[in-house]
Amino acid sequence: MGAPTWPPTPEEARKAVLEEYGEDARAVLDDEEAERLLLAPFLFAEPRGMLGGAEAGTPLEPLLRSLEAWLAMLVGRPVKVAPSDPPTTDGAVIFLPPAAPAPAREAEDRLFFRVAALVQLGLVESGLLANRALVAEMHTDWVLRSCVHLLALHHLRERWARAWPGLARDFQAVAALDKATELRVNLSPVPRRGMPGDFVPLYDGLVDFLDPAGPEGDLAREAVAAVRAASDPRAAPLVVLGQARKLRIAFRERRLGPPPLPRFAGLIRPEWLLHDLAAEMKASRAWRDEDPGPLRLLGKKLRRRLPARRAPVPEPEALTGEPLPPPPEDDAASFRYPEWDAAAGSWRLDAVRVREVEAPRGPAGAWERAVEAHRGAIALVRRRFASLRVEERWLHRQVDGSDLDLDRAVAAMGELAAGFTPREDWTMRFVREREAVAILVMVDLSGSTRGEIARLERDAVVVLSHGLLVLGHPHAIYGFSNEGPEDCRFARLRGWDEPYDEAARRRLGTFRSGGSTRLGAFVRHGARVLLRRPESRRVMLVLSDGRPHDRAGYTGRQALADSALAVLDARRRGIHVHCVSIDAHERAREALDAVFGPGRYLHLKRVDELPVKLAEALVHLVR
Amino acid sequence: MSVYYVPTGSEIEVFERAHALRLPVLLKGPTGCGKTRFVRYMAEKLGRPLVTVACQEDLSAADLTGRFLLEGGDTVWRDGPLTRAVREGAICYLDEVVEARADVLTVIHPLTDDRRSLPLERRGEELVAPDDFMVVVSYNPGYQSVTRELKESTRQRFVSLSFDYPDEDAEAGIVAHESGCDEATARQLVKLGRATRNLKDHGLREGASTRLLVYAGALVAAGLSLREAAESTLVGSLTDDPEMTRALRELLRSALG
Q1: Are A80 and A197 found together in one domain?
Q2: Beta-carbon pairs below 8 A across chains A and B
Q3: How far is B185 from chain A (nearest CA, A)?
Q4: Comparing C-alpha atoms, which of A113, A100, A14 is closest to residue A59?
Q5: Which carries the bigger pLDDT value, residue A173 or residue A259?
């Protein structure tokens, strides 16, 4: 389905739905409300990222640090910003698009990011998102969501300008940028032209900040005036919500569908706020099961058909690896994690079980052979890691330093001349200090990593170990693979405080691979392991040879969506997650983009580069 | 009083009592919040000379107490600032005391307990401090690292006074008084300065100090525009990091348009 015209009439929508989905839909259409019909083209349209490919202008990533600093100064607390499409917030992190809309014009694009961030941050600061009942309601009601967002935009514009007068100019300037004010419903662009007459005054008042005429104009004007006048921070969320409900009723009565949102305003994604609240999910699921309303029936039917219409996702190669020998039950710690069910749009609670086990030891000598084979790479990596030490200075008055401390030597001569025996501390020493980073290296041990790939992974980890030892940061190396959701093994190759002794070397020297890659569960467990560390900087480096994949229920888009959410959640908790992939498949980048995000992984086409490139990836993360 | 100081709590009373009881005082607080000004103010109020030592890593015990120097063919003893302060009954102020090595600081221990004496081993002499002598040390907790903490045996010898930046009204008053700028300008500067303090440990090691805001106010009073004055103090003096510089410039734009 192409970009819909806005807004479609109920008849047009009915026709479009019937054409698209056939007679199956007819049985339930009679019961549909007109508004829901209006939503159908958007609900079931092919999801379309806001800013992909040629649409992308200036990327967000290089601007993140200054943007976070600027926001922190405005609100008086640290603010975390991360890329995501569409822009939204989960109450803790401000998510902005990975790039501003094309064409790239840095000053304009900075403005776009600033204002988009202010809107999301304002939503958090206003307390609107703390209203769980509202969030749950918006979870299922798109029209209300759009109304809340539009009115919140007016309120926030007023509020920010009151606190920081210069921001009024930013809001005005962004409203003059076509690239920022393009209208969207969900992720689909909608044209400004062709709107029915009674929509225009509402649109003018709510979206374009104009002073519209007529009864619809009065409605918009009253709502906007009320939220702009709400200066008491405790009352403002209630005023916004109350006026949004009034507008929502008006939109339904006039059969107008959801009002489109300007691009810079973005969308609240309530499911992000709800996703970790098991109780709310259970309630949501129960509600959905008990109330299979007509639209939901239609939705279920359509969803079944939708995957076939999407671009095909290549299935991973058949798994042929030998399974890891099962560890004894009583020496394994066991952890349960939820999984995101992309098809159902909900979480499966306690869906997987991850066990921490000790990886099996291989024969002696494999580590040493790998060291011998990569002596050059190890020397290179050690030099590279040594250069990461950040603070360098001279320590004066040392007994055993490397250079003469001239000032002290002169003073000592004076003491000698006066008949005293000076302390022999007339040398100085050069020292380096650095902030500790907790580094967790996670190696894919699934069945696809057999033979040459497994050997190269092992060699890469051996080379990396030498670099990590030079660096001195606390680190651990784990392998992961699974046999279905109940048997996910997080296998210790080298623990945090473990020496590289014979036992560790035999584990590291011989990877035994087998099973599948239920990546989401392992990333969640890796995050848990890292969050137990005292260091404030934490890095997770995933070494993988392919896409996440397990038996039925964790394949294709399902596996990508769950893994992506796990990575996102880890990043929200302040963990730097990065992947080095040696997936040879031609569509590997697509999967890596989806799970780790553009620029957050290293894709190697030549596997023999792995030992050095893996270390290089870590250098970028900890420097 | 020639030294201008606006109290933020009971620090003057505490200091006076400590001086009367011959107890040493430790001042802690962020850079430029008024610690040194407070010591100068108290020295003048109590009528005592002030001897200030800026501590740093290479400071030695001899730098504090004194040393023999070569003059011609002779060796001559020269008092260090601590010895001089003891002889004069002055207030000896060791600024940023944690920057000095811990073993060097043990030289002040006998002066900070009931002995109140300073042994000069090189001269075979032990000075007894007069009643008016007082040791005051200061440090900025934000600058400490694990390797630069005040030893417990040193810390527990002091009466402590914690300093922070004054509240918004008081700080605006100080900026206006010290710089000569008008109150509206002072208020805008204080608002900007307080915003930068939110970046402490999140991009900046310290936010703008009251002292820096006074400099900015003085530049405005001397004819610069507020934006120019803020640019050269709140941006240029706080960081060299290009991204933090950009964030600070955007803050100025958000505040001043």
Answers
A1: yes
A2: 92
A3: 15
A4: A100
A5: A173
Check residue A399 and give its pLDDT. Answer: 79
Domain map (residue ranges) of chain B:
11-162, 168-256
The CA distance from B29 to B35, in Å, is 7
Q: Burial level of A330, CB count in 10 A (0-12/13-18/19+)?
A: exposed
ipTM given for this complex: 0.80
Judge if A210 and A68 occupy the same domain: yes
B70: pLDDT strictly greater than 50: yes
**Contact at CB, B70 and A414, closer than 8 angstroms:** yes
Q: Are A619 and A384 in contact (CB under 8 A)?
A: yes
More confident site: A109 or A276: A109
Tens of pLDDT, residues A366-382: 888 888 888 877 877 77
Mean pLDDT value across residues B38-55 = 96
Are residues A348 and A208 part of one domain? Answer: no
Pairing between β-strand B50-54 and β-strand B91-95 as defined by DSSP bridges: parallel
Residue B180 has pLDDT above 50, yes or no: yes
Q: Does the structure show a pLDDT above 80 at A559? A: yes
pLDDT for residue A623 is more than 70: no
**Which of A58, A60, A63, A66 to probe the B interface (max B CBs under 10 A)?**
A66
Q: Are residues A68 and A193 in the same domain?
A: yes
Q: What superfamily would CATH give domain B11-162?
A: P-loop containing nucleotide triphosphate hydrolases (3.40.50.300)
Interface probe with B: pick from A60, A73, A79, most Cβ of B within 10 Å: A73
Query: What is the tally of structural domains in chain A?
Result: 4
Is the domain of A503 the same as that of A615?
yes
Residue A287 tokens read as 């509600």
Does A522 map to a domain? Answer: yes
Domain assignment of residue A283, yes or no: no
- CA-closest candidate to residue A474, choices A454, A498, A451, A458: A498
Range of the domain at A417: 392-433
Look at B203 and A65 and tell me if their CB atoms are within 8 Å: yes
